[in-house]
Structures are given as C-alpha cells and as structure tokens.
Amino acid sequence: MRLEYPTNIRIVLVPCTGKVDIIHILRSFEKGADGVYVVGCMEGSCQFISGNIRARKRVEQAQEILDKIGVGGGRVQMYNLSAGEGTHFAKFAVEMEEKIRGLGPNPVKNSKKNLAA
Amino acid sequence: MIVADKKPIEEIIEVIKDHDKILVLGCNECVTVCEAGGKKEVEILASALRMYFLNNGKEMVIDEHTLERQCDHEYLEEVRDRIDQYDAVLSLACGVGVQFMAEKYHSTPIYPGVNTCFLGATEQRGLWTERCQACGECMLATTGGICPVSRCAKRILNGPCGGSSNGKCELGKEVDCAWHLIVERLKALGRLDDYEKVCSIKDWSTDRAGGPRKVIREDVQV
Predict the structure, then answer these.
(1) Best interface-test mutation with B: which of A21, A111, A114, A115 has the largest number of B CBs within 10 A?
(2) Tens digit of pLDDT for each residue in B156-185?
(3) B29: burial class by Cβ within 10 Å (0-12, 13-18, 19+)?
(4) Residue A1: pLDDT above 80?
(5) Residue B92: is it exposed, middle or buried by C-beta count within 10 angstroms (0-12/13-18/19+)?
(6) Are B140 and B147 in contact (CB under 8 A)?
(7) Which DSSP letter does residue A19 get?
(8) DSSP letter assigned to residue A48
(9) If one looks up domain B2-118 in CATH, what number appears?
(10) CB contact under 8 A, A108 and B54
C-alpha cells in the first residue's frame, strides 16, 4: 500500500484499545505530547466485546478533564477502523496532525519551559 | 461498602491552590471499588492537578500514594515519616479516613477529595445504590431481607404508605417502593404471615438520634 502519514506521530501498541486508560492519556500530556488519539476497531466488532467502547468512554473522560484544566479536550480523539482500512489509518493521522497544528503546542509543555527559564 | 463520588476538580483546586506541596492519598478499600478514591483515581487526579497548576504558572509538587486503608492506625502509620514534607494532604478516602487521618496528624491540613455518599452495593459497574443506614438495630429478618429504613423515603416500619403506586414510590417512577418489594419477597418466601405482624416502635437511640455511636467489644480488646 505504501501510504504516507506524518512522521511526528509516535505509535504505542496495545493489545486492545480497552487497555488504554485515562492516566495513559494524561501522562502523555504531562510528558509533553501535543495531542493523543486512540485508534480502535469498529464498534461492535471488538474481539473482547467492549474494549473499544471502554476506550471511547475513557477518551471522553480525558477530554472532560483536559477541558477543565485548560489543556483542551480537543487534543484527544477516538477513531475507529477495521484491520483492512490502512487508508483510513493514514487519513486519521493526517487529520489529527492538522487539528493539533491548528491548536498549537501543548500549553503544559510551554509552561514547564517558562518556569525552568 | 461505603460509597463515595468524585468531587469536582474545580472545588479541589480552590481548596489546595495556596499550598506548594501536596500528597494525594488514596485508599485501597471501598472507594477503590466505587472508583472514586483508589490508586487509579489518585494517579488521574494528581496528574490533572499538576498540569492545571503548571498551566497557571505554578510548579506545585503533587505526590501520590495509596494506603491499604485510611481507617486503621497501622496503615496510617505508613505515612508518618513523610507527612511533614507536605503542606497538606488531599485524602481520597471516605469521610472516616479523612477524619482519622486528621486526628492522627494534627499539624497537617487534611482535605477531602471525594464526597462520601452512603452504605451501598454495586448493582452494576457505574451504578451504586443505598442499602443500609447503619441504624444499629437490624430488622431485615422480619422484612424479607429488604430494609425499610434505608429504602423507604419515609422509613415507614409498617408500610406501604398511600404514595405507593404500581410498586413505585411517590418520589418518582425510578424509585422502587420498599414495602412493595418487601410484600413481594415475603410472598415468594411463603411468609406473608410476617407482614401481618405489626412492627412495634423502633428504638432509634441506636441510630444517629442518640448522637455519635461506639461499638465496644471487650472480648476482642487486648
């Protein structure tokens, strides 16, 4: 397929998106990530029944927390695709990269730099 | 178990904002089961608070720790050698844990990080319902295992009242009438005769009406 997608995305492999917890998302921001997106299987086709639904709910909770603390819930997103949809994977990466570039850098990272200076 | 719910983060921020070094302290018991104050919630809250204060130009030290229980001396002792390092503790234990902690460590402010709600059960994940009001004189033996003290809004001991309609309470259609449940249960047990027995006046002195309560068991005291 040889599809291209932005190189500034770091992929973290998990056995199922149901393994992704709110703290994993928050820690990414604490460590300086500008955005986080979770890519799971299509809803209704989870091998573990509800892993991707749990992930969606956790993403929503992370969005709520990030909104409240001023980081911005828009920096987190859940996507769903099937294993055969490589084109979608690349499309989501491009879409997320554009969205995050529009939002600018993670404000926590900037604050850390300012306090250290 | 004791059921608690998360406090809004805005409320917590307001309480701790003037401190510089905070310990977020979880509890491994009831509040872990009801997903309000266990290790996971400690991690999430501490991370969110650190980011909030950084974002607002303040590098606050917010450490995390979770005790087996906060309602027992032996577990609370675990933090004795480090508690003086902190300006305050944000305890995610129930109200009992927060108070016990405050009684033990006089010079450190202990703030509650959850709202303690009731004694209840996990009906399903994310749904906890009240089952007991700790009245101190259990009458479940005569009511088919359903408690009119905690589940009837009026705490009626010889019910139902006139507000019961189609098995629901006059409070709303989502609230079961406790006495309807009791009658149905006694019927299923073949013990409807119990329902005919009038319950005499309950001794409420063992409830909160008698003031703060104590259980003294000299047989287990050493």
Answers:
(1) A111
(2) 999 999 999 999 999 999 999 999 999 999
(3) buried
(4) no
(5) buried
(6) yes
(7) G
(8) T
(9) 3.40.50.2300
(10) yes
Provide CB contacts within 8 A for B9, sequence distance 6+.
A65, A68, A69, B45, B48, B49, B52
Which one, of B125, B100, B105, B98, lies nearest residue B7 by Cα? Answer: B98
Cβ atoms of residues B118 and B52 within 8 Å? no
Contact assignment for B47 to A115 by CB distance below 8 Å: no
**Mean pLDDT for all residues in chain A:** 95
Look-up: residue for tokens 């919630």? B41
Any idea of the CA torsion for A64, A68, A69, A71, to the nearest 10 degrees? 60
Between residues B200 and B41, the one the model is more confident about = B41
Q: For residue range A21-54, what is the model confidence (pLDDT) as tens digits?
A: 999 999 999 999 999 999 999 999 999 999 999 9
Token output for A65: 């927390």
Kindly state the helix (H) or strand (E) to which residue B198 belongs, with its residue range: none
The residue of B45, B51, B59, B66 whose CB has the most chain A CBs within 10 angstroms, and thus the best one to mutate to test that interface, is B51
Taking the domains of chain B in order of start, what are their residue ranges?
Answer: 2-118, 133-203
